[in-house]
């Protein structure tokens, strides 16, 4: 089989992959994007579950290239998956990207050749094996390339429909069904509040409560966006300098210098603004001081408890003693999640107290009971499923396991994995950052580094173990 040769291979066609392709092509590199899906979009090619929409507001959640934002207008402040797919289709057409993409192909392995200073990449298509090599390998999957489904005993015996939110079937009738949802992260919250109103019965299998915040979505039009477009360039520049990559920033003055009344007023204002304001425009001290964190949690809990009548559900969804410091895990944005969970047809099972033992042909069995289901939904995130081997044939997993911890340089490279870059991964702003902002800030560093290497004729770039350790100590 002939191996295609490129200057750079980019894994994934989401925001990061699209940004890399545009910028590396501008440097004159011959590039190929390899994408599991059938079109551009990355996560937003796959996220088609009921209620799926982005949790960053517009225009923060788009690429900053003027040739793109000047010709595109959104209809929603928080676009749904359909509109995001339309956006990626527009980007692909406008920038003529698809000619340098190979779709319907999953990268299975990448091996570093220390003699030729190239990466050998193998992918699997629907009915073929794909092989290519490149000087540079850029992973834009966020280290989460494959939907994660827990390996519960008996899952293969379930006679109903078992599906993952990241692989939602095109035709799926949910009205009047008995539905189980495993997981209460972002996708879990959205699918629960969407399916709950018309499900016969919906069981939530919750490991930890989600400190979800009010989204407060609303429609927008071209006229509104045209009014603000003259300041878009300044806005996108601002996004590169805020804590979260959003158009607002944390309050850096000491929280306790404000009076209790002033602090409550700040909380109320941020709550009313909606979105991530209560999380990422709040006092920095909430992330640093337990007393400040407790006060923010008490405010959040009071707001949520006002919306839940059932005392048992209230304690499960908003416990008096917080399960983890608020803000230290990415909260989801919700529209009516707590009201839906309070419905009589919704049951919440704490799987920490009563763990899932197995999946049966008719449902899910925990240590406390057995629940009959027609549909079982896994909202359980994704994992890395690419065999990447650097110097000496060592995998990244083994490399980090040998060091007893994850070590990267700048959250973008790994020692002993030359010419390999990854975006939206560990030891980076990933969990706390707006996706497109992170894609562009990290992506610009990758592009500048590759340009610097090429201008000097350097064919192998390998961060030192000492640099990786120093960066780990720093973060």
From TrEMBL:
Q: Which superkingdom is the protein from?
A: Eukaryota
Pfam hit, one:
FMO-like
What SUPFAM superfamilies is this protein classified in? FAD/NAD(P)-binding domain (SSF51905)
For this protein, the record's InterPro entries field holds: FAD-binding_Monooxygenases, FAD/NAD-bd_sf, Flavin_mOase-like
Which keywords label this protein?
A: FAD, Flavoprotein, Monooxygenase, NADP, Oxidoreductase
Cite the GO molecular-function annotations of the record.
Answer: flavin adenine dinucleotide binding; N,N-dimethylaniline monooxygenase activity; NADP binding
Gene3D superfamilies named in the record: FAD/NAD(P)-binding domain
Q: What is this protein called?
A: Cyclohexanone monooxygenase
The source organism is Boletus reticuloceps
């Amino acid at each position: 089989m002939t191996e295609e040769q490129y200057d750079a291979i980019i894994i994934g066609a989401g925001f990061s992959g699209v940004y890399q392709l545009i910028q590396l092509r501008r440097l004159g590199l011959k590039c190929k994007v390899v994408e599991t899906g059938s079109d551009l979009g990355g996560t937003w090619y796959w996220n088609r579950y009921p209620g799926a929409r982005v949790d960053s507001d517009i225009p923060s959640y788009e690429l900053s290239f003027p040739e793109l934002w000047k010709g595109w207008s959104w209809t929603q402040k928080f676009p749904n998956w359909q509109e995001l797919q339309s956006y990626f289709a527009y980007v692909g057409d406008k920038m003529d990207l698809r000619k340098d993409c190979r779709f319907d192909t999953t990268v299975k392995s990448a091996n570093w050749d220390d003699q030729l200073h190239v990466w050998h990449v193998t992918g699997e298509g629907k009915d073929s094996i794909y092989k290519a090599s490149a000087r540079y390998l850029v992973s834009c999957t966020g280290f989460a390339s494959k939907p994660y489904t827990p390996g519960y005993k008996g899952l293969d015996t379930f006679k109903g429909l078992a599906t993952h939110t990241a692989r939602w079937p095109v035709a799926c009738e949910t009205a009047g069904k008995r539905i189980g949802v495993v997981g209460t992260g972002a996708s879990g919250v959205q699918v629960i509040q969407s399916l709950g109103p018309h499900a016969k019965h919906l069981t939530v299998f919750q490991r930890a409560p989600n400190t979800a915040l009010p989204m407060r979505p609303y429609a927008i039009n071209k006229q509104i966006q045209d009014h603000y477009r003259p300041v878009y360039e300044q806005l996108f520049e601002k996004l590169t300098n805020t804590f979260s990559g959003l158009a607002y920033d944390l309050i850096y003055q000491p929280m306790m210098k404000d009076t209790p009344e002033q602090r409550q007023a700040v909380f109320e204002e941020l709550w009313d603004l909606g979105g991530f304001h209560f999380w990422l425009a709040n006092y920095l001290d909430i992330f640093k001081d337990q007393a400040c964190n407790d006060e923010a949690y008490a405010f959040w809990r009071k707001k949520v408890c006002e919306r839940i009548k059932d005392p048992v559900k209230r304690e499960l969804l908003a416990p008096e003693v917080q399960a983890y410091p608020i803000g230290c895990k990415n909260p989801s944005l919700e529209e009516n999640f707590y009201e839906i969970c309070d419905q009589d047809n919704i049951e919440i099972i704490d799987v920490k107290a009563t763990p899932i033992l197995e999946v049966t042909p008719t449902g899910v069995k925990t240590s406390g009971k057995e629940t009959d289901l027609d549909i079982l939904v896994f909202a359980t995130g994704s994992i890395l499923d690419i065999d990447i081997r650097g110097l000496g044939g060592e995998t990244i997993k083994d490399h980090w396991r040998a060091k007893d911890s994850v070590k990267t340089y700048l959250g973008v490279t790994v020692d002993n994995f030359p010419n390999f870059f990854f975006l939206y991964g560990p030891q980076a702003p990933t969990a706390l950052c707006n996706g497109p902002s992170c894609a562009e800030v990290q992506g610009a560093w990758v592009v500048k580094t590759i340009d610097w290497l090429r201008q000097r004729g350097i064919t192998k770039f390998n961060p030192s173990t000492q640099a990786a350790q120093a960066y780990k100590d720093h973060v």
